Amino acid sequence: MAKDDDGRIGIVAALVRSTFLVNAVYADSAREYGLTSQQGQLLCVLMAQPYGMGELGAMLKLAKSSLTGLVDRTERNGLVERRPDPQDSRAVRVALTPRGGELAEEFYTETCRRVERLAEGLTAAERDTLAGLLGGVVRDNEVPVVFLESDRGTAAERGR
């Protein structure tokens, strides 16, 4: 469990510790925008498109009651709204409000900048290697797209 003699740590410790590091940066960024980490995640997911409650629960790995509470609180803050689902009159889709969209863009941009800085000590080649390796882990484990690629630009640039 300790560091190897050459200062390297093993894969498990590296992945777990990097998760803590990214989560701490994410939480700090969310707090500065008046959000909880979960609200920040919700806003970032909804940047791509509105989703139904079932889809959101699966993506965010939240139980129905937890997701309902999260959406309720975020809706009370004027950041998301429930809209009728055009394909199913019994269901709703959760979408960003105009205010929520603006906040999501600002939060997303700043959070990407902060997470990017975590790897600033690496060379461009090392960064590419790290992204490729972690991308493989994410794909192999079928992690849903809960955070857009930072190089996709703003919503206006993406043609929203």
Describe the structure.
By secondary structure, the protein is mostly helical. It has a single domain, classed as Arc Repressor Mutant, subunit A (Orthogonal Bundle). The protein has helices at residues 11-32, 37-46, 53-60, 64-76, 98-117, 124-140, and strands at residues 51-52, 80-85, 88-96. A hairpin with a 2-residue loop joins strand 2 (80-85) and strand 3 (88-96). Helix 1 (11-32) crosses helix 5. Mean pLDDT is 89; it is low at 152-160.
Structural features:
160 residues, mainly alpha, Arc Repressor Mutant, subunit A, 6 helices, 3 strands, elongated, disordered C terminus
Briefly summarize what is shown.
The chain is built from six helices and three strands. It has helices at residues 11-32, 37-46, 53-60, 64-76, 98-117, 124-140; strands spanning 51-52, 80-85, 88-96.
| Number of domains as seen in the coordinates | 1
Distance between the termini: 47 Å
Radius of gyration: 18 Å
Main sheet: strands, sense, barrel: 3 strands, antiparallel
Give the helix level as a range of percent.
55-70%
Beta-strand share of residues? 5-15%
User: What's the rounded overall pLDDT mean?
Assistant: 89
